[in-house]
Amino acid sequence: xxxxxxRVRGFLRNRWLVFVAxxxxxxxxxxxxxxxxxxxxxxxxxxxxxxxxxxxxxxKDLGDSVGFLAGTLCAVLPLWAAxxxxxxxxxxxxxxxxxAVTRRxxxxxLWAMCILIFIGNNGETYFNTAALVSxxxxxxxxxxxxxxxxKGFAGxxxxxxxxxxxxxxxxxxxxxxxxxAVGPTMVVIALMFIVRPVGGHRQVRPSxxxxxxxxxxxxxxxxxxxxxxxxxxxxxxxxxSMTVLLTIIxxxxxxxxxVIPVLLSFFSDDDETLYALLLPSPRKEEASASTSxxxxxxxxxxxxxxxxxxxxxxxxxxxxxxxxxALQARLFQAAxxxxxxxxxxxxxRRGEDFTLMQALIKADFWLLFFSLLLGSGSGLTVIDxxxxxxxxxGYEETHIFVSMISIWxxxxxxxxxxxxxxxxxxxxxxxxxxxxxxxxxxxxxxFNFAMAWPGTMYIGTLLVGIGYGAHWAIVPAAASELFGxxxxxxxxNFLTVANPAGSLVFSGIIASGIYDAEAAKQAQQRxxxxxxxxxxxxxxxxxxxxxSLKCEGAIxxxxxxxxxxxxxxxxxxxxxxxxxxxxxxxxxLYGKPRT
Length: 595
Fold this sequence. Notes:
InterPro entries: MFS_trans_sf, NFD4_C, Nodulin-like. This protein is an all-alpha fold. It is built from 25 helices and no strands. Helix 17 (about 365-385) packs antiparallel against helix 25. It starts with a helix and ends in a 5-residue tail after the last helix.
């Protein structure tokens, strides 16, 4: 009985349980990706035009990206308390929007609706921050896979929630808003005491590689299954019982990863406490001496960077290491006898720990920021306007494309983290090269949307979804490599501001302005033809009851898609400049490339 109790306690402290719970939380945390399905309901119910809907979209993006408060609260409060704050924001924000859309309360003005959308979507930042902080601390040697998988499930949440909504089969379109308000809140409250740091650095096992492979396999199977379900529902009129069965299978897929902590805790002969006890706990004197030694060595290494000849970086790896080692030895000897005074650095170098203020004066940080702004901003514009884009091309069901882009977004995050990890670890090449490749895909995807060829919606969502998703696996990892992990939360939350900034320009100004202008032209043409065929009294009645502007045809997003394609090409150039500037950093971080 004592052994069973010990294993149960080990299960509750298992870092893989925390990771699986974070995956579940993230799978319903990305409610912002459902805005493409929510916006047509809000637009028709409240009589908004496309510019007003775009304003709501910008408020949603701001709520999703402005995570400074969430980062601060996660640092000063227990993670469960921060998660509770986020759950309350999600419930209040989207709950009030649902009450307004269903006319259960008076409809607030547009600015108040923007605030409600901001509050509701800002709850995501608490979920994301808690999940990333806890899991990165629990898996310090696997940041790339951890970030990619967690952000991937956040991107997949749109497809998951859409499928659950299809199972509910509510005739009221506003029920989707109600589900967004209540569903994630319930899940987060259920998991908020599990998602926490548990000293995962002391739980390293030889089986971790196999466990990650299993999680990757489940992710790919889950994405393939969801894609098959969405295509089946689009091509065949499924019965309600079949839809329920498919949704139950989806939930089983989500639950499967729990077998990892169960097997490790209850069916493994290894005792985690033994791993913890075997790790040495240095005495205070040793720790102080170690800190002093590391500080001195850090300063000496800084002097090496200052004193080494410029042509050393151009030498082969083995010869370069010999030259640097010899220079370092001379500096140590000279400092020891007082022949040279070692200078104290004024700031960190790339690859070391930066504060946010130190990073803000570095060109590499701004190259990464603006590359993210142009790439992810254009992708987010497609996500926010996907309902109107599909409707303008004659598609009646917009949910299929919202679900598809969520799946591609998911695969982009999983694949972006996986392949960029290969680039840096196997070839010691800058991670930003993977970012440039993702932006090339997005440029092609936007061009497809502009041309409106047959099947454009399917091809465009594929390319833009994968490229957009890859940004959020690559950029956080690159930021941690170039500017350190000590202040990663502040750096990451600042970089995420690029998302709403890009959306404000692309969606709030460019796309919505062009859409409304084209819709106004089409409305004027229809109005002129109506004047010729109807009596004046009827024309007056129609004008008074005129619905919000609606654009039809490929022209609606032609110019805006071309503009976004061009900006993605500019983002590629910025990423390649960053690659050129940071080659030596990755060579030093990851050593000689494998041949």
